[in-house]
Design a protein that fits this description.
Elements lengths: L1 E6 L2 H13 L3 E6 L5 H13 L3 E6 L10 H20 L2 E10 L12 H9 L19 H21 L1 H4 L3 E7 L5 H20 L8 H12 L10 E4 L3 H6 L8
Parallel strand pairs: 1-2, 3-4, 4-5, 5-6
């Protein structure tokens, strides 16, 4: 098996290549701009050149405190759609994909059923033309992030029923809660008190670890999940359950 890593940072790619070669894997890398349709398509083409594309994991994204609303929509929503489309053309029969979304996709995005259908079915290049994704509607980074993560769920449903399904492959999302990662520390630094109140209110009373997300993702990619496609696995320590039960309120 050959592992192909794509990232916008060549330095980071060199570090990852060295790490995984140390584990005994054959590793290839390619610089990828996840905002660019052409760059994502080149990534998929490179994967196909290396042999059958059995698995694909998409992790690119900005958090609310890292970028403007426009940049979040571009990367988290439109860039993810580029990836679903590109790898849906090269994934092998019996293959599986995983898009990393977020628990925020369940946090009541201001979208109607018709707007959800539009996001699900609109080609990536036309998404910015949708009124529901206009700057007048998406006025802050938090809303952009929530809508983008909900869109991830919708777009995976569409891909599972169409391109990926037609190739005999599966595609799902996973929605982590608060997981200790470098991205999470950016959010903690911006609103540590708010995050602590949320953590204190949820059933598990703690943050999650990357290993716990790894285990859930491994299941979705494995043959044990061979009848699971077009769905999202929420791994949030009960955050959304607590929110719906009014154990805490967003923004307080």
């Amino acid at each position: 098996m050959t592992l192909l890593f794509g990232d916008i940072s060549e330095k980071r790619l060199d570090e990852v290549k060295c790490e995984y070669q140390g584990y005994g894997y054959a590793v290839e890398t390619i610089v990828v701009d996840a905002n660019s349709k052409e760059s994502i398509e080149a990534f998929a083409a490179k994967a196909a050149e290396l042999g059958e594309v059995k698995y694909y994991i998409h992790t690119a994204g900005h958090s609310p405190n890292q970028a403007s609303p426009e940049k979040i929509i571009d990367l988290d929503l439109i860039g993810s759609k580029y990836a679903l489309d590109a790898f849906g053309k090269v994934i092998t029969k019996g293959g599986a994909g995983l898009l990393i979304s977020s628990q925020t996709g369940y946090m009541f995005p201001p979208l109607s059923a018709e707007e959800e259908y539009q996001i699900m079915t609109t080609p990536a290049d036309k998404l910015k033309d949708l009124p529901c994704l206009s700057p007048e509607r998406i006025t802050n980074s938090g809303t952009a992030y929530i809508v983008s993560k909900k869109a991830n769920h919708l777009q995976v449903q569409y891909s599972a029923a169409h391109e990926w399904g037609e190739r005999g492959a599966r595609i799902n999302t996973i929605s982590p809660g608060v997981i200790v990662t470098p991205l999470a520390y950016d959010e903690f630094n911006a609103n540590g008190a708010g995050y602590q109140r949320m953590i204190d209110a949820i059933p598990m009373r703690r943050v999650g670890s990357p290993d716990e997300i790894d285990a859930a993702g491994a299941f979705l990619l494995s043959d044990d999940a061979s009848y699971v496609t077009g769905t999202d696995l929420l791994v949030d320590g009960g955050t959304i359950a607590a929110l719906k039960n009014k154990k805490f309120n967003l923004g307080r």
